[in-house]
């Protein structure tokens, strides 16, 4: 699964999760750090990424527009990057099932 990490998550996640999500990127590395959500959405849609964010805006957009892209909504408050990385490692099988589900638009992780 190719993950695109939103600006509200650390760019370090790309490196910390390279073993399970090797083709993932961060918006900062693509010049999209301050881009409007619609630009991030379109980039993810065109290039086959699932957006990972703590922001409810992407979740809401997925309800209106469907997918692609798929949305992984991280429901953790202010927490260390290592905690987010551990969550994504732990839920790797669930993310793989989500990726292959033909009707799922978003996945909430808490």
How is this structure best described in words?
- The protein has 110 residues and is α/β, with parallel strands linked by helices.
- It is 40% helix and 15% strand.
- It is built from 5 helices and 5 strands, in the order βαβαβαβααβ.
- The chain has a 5-stranded parallel β-sheet with strand order 2-1-3-4-5, sandwiched between helices.
- Strand 3, helix 3 and strand 4 form a beta-alpha-beta unit.
- The longest helix has 11 residues, at 37-47.
- The radius of gyration is 12 Å and the shape is globular.
- The protein starts with a strand and ends with a strand.
Quick rundown:
The chain has 110 residues and is α/β, with parallel strands linked by helices.
Tags for this model:
110 residues; alpha/beta; five-stranded parallel beta sheet; 15% strand
Write the layout of secondary structure elements.
Elements: E1 3-5, H1 13-16, E2 25-26, H2 37-47, E3 50-53, H3 56-65, E4 71-74, H4 81-90, H5 92-100, E5 106-109
Parallel strand pairs: 1-2, 1-3, 3-4, 4-5
């Amino acid at each position: 699964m190719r993950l695109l990490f939103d600006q509200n998550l650390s760019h370090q996640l790309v490196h910390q999760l390279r073993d399970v999500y090797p083709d993932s990127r961060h918006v900062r590395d693509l010049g999209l750090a301050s881009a409007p959500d619609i630009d991030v959405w379109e980039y993810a849609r065109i290039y086959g990424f699932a957006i990972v964010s703590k922001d409810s805006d992407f979740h809401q957009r997925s309800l209106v527009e469907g997918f692609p892209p798929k949305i992984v909504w991280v429901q953790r408050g202010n927490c260390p990057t290592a905690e987010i990385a551990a969550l994504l490692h732990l839920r790797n099988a669930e993310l793989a099932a989500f990726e292959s589900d033909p009707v799922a638009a978003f996945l909430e992780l808490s």
